[in-house]
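Curious: explain these C-alpha cells?
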Amino acid sequence: MLHILEKSKKFDNEFFDKESKIRIGKNTKLEPGVVIYDDCEIGENCIIGTSAVLKSNTKIGDHTIFGTLSTTEGNVEIGSWTTIHSQCHVTEGMKIGNNVFIAPFFYTANTPKISAGKFGYPNTTNDPRFPPSVADGVRIGENVGLAPGVQIGKDSLIDMCCLITKNIPPNSYVRADKSIVGRIIK
C-alpha cells in the first residue's frame, strides 16, 4: 500500500511501483492524505482529491477527477474525462463510464440484504454481490443513491436527492418527487 501523502505530489512522468503494482500516469496530481492500495492504476492528467481512498484493483482513466474524501471499495473501473466530486462512495465491483459527472454525496451498495450480527471483509455471509453501473455520458446530481445491481443507461440525467432502485434506460431524465422517487420523465 502506498503511504498516505503528507503534501501534494504531481507526477511529471509515469510512475510505477513494481512491489505494490501501483501505476500513476504523467501529470496526475495526488493531493494530501490520499491512500492508494496495491494493484491500482490511475491515468494521465488526473486529480485525486485530499484524503481520497482507492482500494485494490481500482482503475481510473485519463483526465478524471476523483474528489476529496471519496472512496472506492476495490475492483472498480472509472472511465476517462469523468468527474466524481467529494464525499462519494463507489462500491466494490462498480463500473463508471467515460464523460460522467457525479455530484457530491453519491453513494452505492452491492449487497441486497443485511445479515444480523455478521459483518467484515471478506464477505462473511456468502451473499452474492450485485454492483451497480453507470454508463457513458451520465450526469448525477447531489445526494443520489444507487441500489445493488442498478444500471444507469447512457446519457441519462439523475436529479439530486434520488434513490435509484430500478434500471434506468438510456437518455432518461429521472427526478425526485414527493410521491415517486426516481420517476422517469419522457
Remarks:
- The radius of gyration is 17 Å.
- Residues 28 and 45 are 4 Å apart (CA to CA).
- The chain has a mean pLDDT of 88.
- The first strand starts at residue 9 and ends at 11.
